[in-house]
Design a protein that fits this description.
- The complex is a heterodimer of chains A (249) and B (62).
- By secondary structure, chain A is mainly α.
- In chain A, strand 1 and strand 2 form a beta hairpin.
- The termini of chain A are far apart.
- Chain B has one domain.
- The longest helix of chain B has 28 residues.
- The radius of gyration of chain B is 14 Å and the shape is elongated.
- The chains are: A mainly alpha (249), B mainly alpha (62).
- Chains A and B meet through helix 5 and helix 7 of A and helix 1 and helix 2 of B.
């Protein structure tokens, strides 16, 4: 039995639309799962009804609204609610696509760094452009921490600028690495079941219970990680936006 | 594991980006290897700053 834990991340074109330059433009499995995630979110938000006593679907929709709204209010203040649509979309997209990815035989959109990097760069440029638009040059005072003696200020400023530039990198790598490593670990442990059974026969199949149990436990962990990473992405977006809204804090 | 990734990604991002900037700096101004050395260390420092910050403010610690 051959096990390739990386195979699940392959991108395969399903419908080829044409070419721009030498680059093929195609609807891939990644695109399809992005549409699936957006479709689920749309269904959850639009088809859940507006009763006074909420049903199950409406409860989920309302809880997710309240959750994101309270996260924004507590980290970026009431002014942060201006960015509610952005943060809510990011949170729901990442959360749903991660959760869809846990279902066996599906593709995890956020396990590709290009997807997470695009989302992180979107946040980075939103912070930068909004910060400069709202505060003008005062925005750059976030690079000058207060109470630093003058002779060391250039060095500190340089480190602050560098750490600002690092944000999109760590923001995207965190989500991508978590999803990638989780899915590889899951695949490897699930593969042990088959490998034991094939190589050792009956004893192997009995021994395979242990990796199987571990796979079940890891799936539960992945469920937590899928939600937690979406939450971390959203809360970091709020923290970064807080810099743009109130620089000098 | 999630938390470990969170903090290590900060540090790795710092070192990698610092080294990349340093390498680009050297390439443009042909000051090799001083740009790489300086920016690598600065990137490391910025990475550590980010690790400390994210350890202080992300939800896992509250």
């Amino acid at each position: 039995m051959k096990i390739d834990p990386i195979h699940q991340f392959n991108i395969e074109p399903i419908i080829t639309l044409g070419q721009i330059g030498k680059h093929t433009i195609a609807i891939t499995n990644s695109t399809v799962y992005m549409f699936v995630a957006v479709g689920i979110i749309g269904l959850l938000m639009l088809a859940s009804g507006r009763q006074l006593i909420p049903g199950r679907m409406q409860s989920i929709a309302e809880i997710s609204y309240e959750f994101v709204a309270s996260t924004i209010r507590s980290t970026a203040g009431p002014e942060g609610m201006k960015f509610f649509p952005l943060i809510f979309s990011l949170f729901m997209f990442i959360c749903i696509s991660n959760l869809v990815g846990i279902v066996p035989y599906t593709f995890t959109v956020s396990s590709h760094i290009i997807v997470t990097a695009a989302l992180a760069l979107l946040v980075f440029f939103t912070v930068l452009i909004y910060g400069v638009y709202k505060n003008g040059l005062k925005f750059f005072s976030i690079f000058m921490p207060k109470g630093v003696p003058g002779y060391i200020l250039p060095l500190v400023m340089f480190i602050e600028i560098l750490s600002f530039l690092l944000r999109p990198v760590s923001h995207s790598v965190r989500l991508f690495a978590n999803m990638l490593a989780g899915h590889i670990a899951l695949k490897v442990f699930a593969g042990f079941v088959g490998m034991l059974g094939v190589s050792l026969g009956a004893i192997g199949w009995i021994g395979g219970v242990m990796p199987l149990a571990l796979t079940v436990a890891l799936t539960a962990l992945e469920l937590l990680v899928a939600f937690l990473q979406a939450y971390v992405f959203a809360i970091l977006t709020c923290i970064y936006l807080n810099d743009a809204i109130h620089p000098g804090h | 594991m999630a938390r470990g990734f969170q903090l290590s990604s900060e540090l790795i991002a710092g070192v990698v980006v610092g080294a990349a900037i340093g390498w680009g700096f050297d390439k443009l101004l042909s000051t090799s290897p001083f740009g790489l050395i300086v920016f690598f260390l600065l990137g490391f420092v910025a990475g550590v700053v980010n690790v400390v910050r994210s350890a202080r403010m992300t939800p896992g610690n509250r």
